């Protein structure tokens, strides 16, 4: 049985969505953030030295890092939600899988951290917004051309992209001026599997 170490209001929500999509049995161990620092509790360090979420355990293996977990689950499900057969779609699939955490999350996180710094913080976030806008414009132009990130079918690329786009919607300037992205988010949130993951995961501020 897969155990998901799930931190409230966090990136690990998408792992629950993925497991619901795949119909794989799993168990959730929930963790609350420290109310003052918003950091994960120290117990998570007993699961993996980085103490971050998501982390999963399966068959005696501990797997951290969303992209690695997603690939692990695609393998376990015999390729379901994985790279499409078409080469162009497969390249796109790989691109988004790396892009979500590698390129899009860093400026969003920077904005969040800067916004919390008193006095100077708010002004500094203004310098970050144009960097986020480059990503939002790119995502919008891609989603205007096809229904899902890799192509005609939903894949794990959509699952990993859900968190940066939810975060952008809540604090990164994503609004109705980018209609293809907003429509994509609505389509994701309407999926029964997304909703069942949400119910099982507990508090999540971004859906
Ligand atoms: N790139 C990593 C990031 C992991 C990460 O930073 N997770 C956050 C949750 S959104 C976390 O655990 N934060 C609490 C902390 O740093 O103490 C991944 O995608 O797994």
Quick synopsis:
This protein is an alpha+beta fold and 207 residues long. 56% of the residues lie in helices and 10% in strands. The chain has a four-stranded mixed beta sheet with strand order 2-1-3-4.
Q: What portion of residues belong to β-strands?
A: 5-15%
Helix-strand sequence: EHEHEEHHHHHH
Our Rg estimate from Cα atoms comes to 17 Å
Helix coverage percent: 55-70%
Q: What is the approximate shape? A: globular
- Class per helix and strand makeup: alpha+beta
Mean pLDDT: 97
Give the total of beta strands. 4
Low-confidence stretches: none
Strand adjacency order, main sheet: 2-1-3-4
* List of distinct ligands in this structure: glutathione
How many helices?
Answer: 8
Gap between N and C termini, in Å?
27 Å
The profile of the biggest β sheet is:
4 strands, mixed
Please explain how this structure is put together.
- The two termini are 27 Å apart.
- By secondary structure, the protein is α+β, with helices and mostly antiparallel strands.
- The protein has helices at 13-22, 43-47, 66-76, 87-115, 120-143, 156-171, 179-189, 192-201, and strands at 2-7, 26-31, 55-58, 61-64.
- Strand 1 (2-7), helix 1 (13-22) and strand 2 (26-31) form a beta-alpha-beta unit.
- Strands 2-1-3-4 form a four-stranded mixed beta sheet.
């Amino acid at each position: 049985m897969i155990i998901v170490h799930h931190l409230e209001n966090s990136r690990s929500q998408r792992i629950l969505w993925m497991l619901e999509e795949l119909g794989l049995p799993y168990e959730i161990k929930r963790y609350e953030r420290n109310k003052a620092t918003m950091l994960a509790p120290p117990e998570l360090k007993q699961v993996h030295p980085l103490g971050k979420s998501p982390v999963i355990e399966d068959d005696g293996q501990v797997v951290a890092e969303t992209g690695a977990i997603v690939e692990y689950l695609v393998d376990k499900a015999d390729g379901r939600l994985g790279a499409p057969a078409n080469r162009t779609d497969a390249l796109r699939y790989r691109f988004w899988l790396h892009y979500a955490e590698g390129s899009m999350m860093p400026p969003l996180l920077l904005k969040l951290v800067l916004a919390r710094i008193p006095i100077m913080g708010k002004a500094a976030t203004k310098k970050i917004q144009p960097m986020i806008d480059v990503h939002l414009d790119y995502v919008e132009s891609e989603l205007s051309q096809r229904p899902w990130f890799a192509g005609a079918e939903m894949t794990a690329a959509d699952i990993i992209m859900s968190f940066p786009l939810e975060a952008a919607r809540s604090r990164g300037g994503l609004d109705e001026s980018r209609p293809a992205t907003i429509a994509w988010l609505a389509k994701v949130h309407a999926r029964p599997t997304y909703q069942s993951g949400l119910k099982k995961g507990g508090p999540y501020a971004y859906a």
